[in-house]
Amino acid sequence: MTRPQPPRAASMYGAVDLSALKANADRPARPAQPSQEPATPVDSEHVFDVAEADFESQVLERSTRQLVVVDLWATWCQPCKQLSPVLEGLAAQSGGRWVLAKVDVDENQRIAQVFGARSIPMVVAIAGGRPVSAFQGAQPEPVVKQWLADVLEQVAPLFGQEEDAEEPTDPRLVAASEALADNDFAKARALFEDIKERGTDETEGSKKAAARQATAEAGLREVAFLERVSAISPDAVAAAQENSGDVDAQLEVADLEVAAGRAGQAFDRLIGVVKTSPEPGKTTARKRLLELFELFDPADPTVIAARRKLASALY
């Protein structure tokens, strides 16, 4: 399975002129087009929707006080459905160090044009009213976390927040994320395991060390998942369609669905196996489902709904 390249926290100062998006509050808004899917509820404190009419106040002005991360997405974009829950979960966990502004490009095409978004998802970090870093494409959570850490360190002086000098970015985490993006699973696993088991000499016992270890654990789960997906036979989908009772085939197709951004469909498939299969297939499907849950934020609405369905299927 081809993985996207990891994002780099390269500077974008001067690369994008956002003045065209200022002072548009009095401009008539374009009528909203009906969406094919219901909007995902978001945390109004740390995650919020933004349109051109309020972009200046919600993004540009706010970015003079705290980092604002803009998520350019659309309802039809499958990679967006992978990345957006990751960003939303991290924003909710940030403690207000940064906020996530979500922009539906179908409803706000001018914003997408100003950012030069040739493809989505596109994520842009805004500080002091100007873009400072950006990346495109769905990225693994460890890579997104590292990108955010780099950006926060970069903009800390702007907000009068100096990062602890004795706790630098762990180069092993950067290397592990890059290896994961390159499908070098053995290297990624070795690096993530080293971070998890040994921590760092400079930060042993600190909050940042604990955060790195948690990130390493998440990275190890993703390595195991991607290795499993890469080994799936091309005949798995046909086998699952021909024999709904083939538990192994159903598990493989569920993995493929998660990798393609159709987590809800994968969860429903495995819950169906739990409902209809005798032991040991029932237990096997339940354990696989719980493993897949761990790839997502526990607060993800899709995971919450699937957990309820699983509980109903079991009891």
UniProtKB/TrEMBL annotation:
UniProt superkingdom: Bacteria
GO BP terms, alphabetized: cell redox homeostasis; response to stress
Location of the Thioredoxin domain: 26-153
Pfam families, per database record: Thioredoxin, TPR_20
PROSITE patterns: THIOREDOXIN_2 (PS51352)
Matching InterPro entries: Thioredoxin-like_sf, Thioredoxin_domain, TPR-like_helical_dom_sf
Chain positions covered by the region annotation Disordered: 23-43
Gene3D superfamilies: Glutaredoxin, Tetratricopeptide repeat domain
PANTHER family xref list: THIOREDOXIN, MITOCHONDRIAL (PTHR43601:SF3)
The protein, known as: Thioredoxin
Species for this entry: Segniliparus rugosus (strain ATCC BAA-974 / DSM 45345 / CCUG 50838 / CIP 108380 / JCM 13579 / CDC 945)
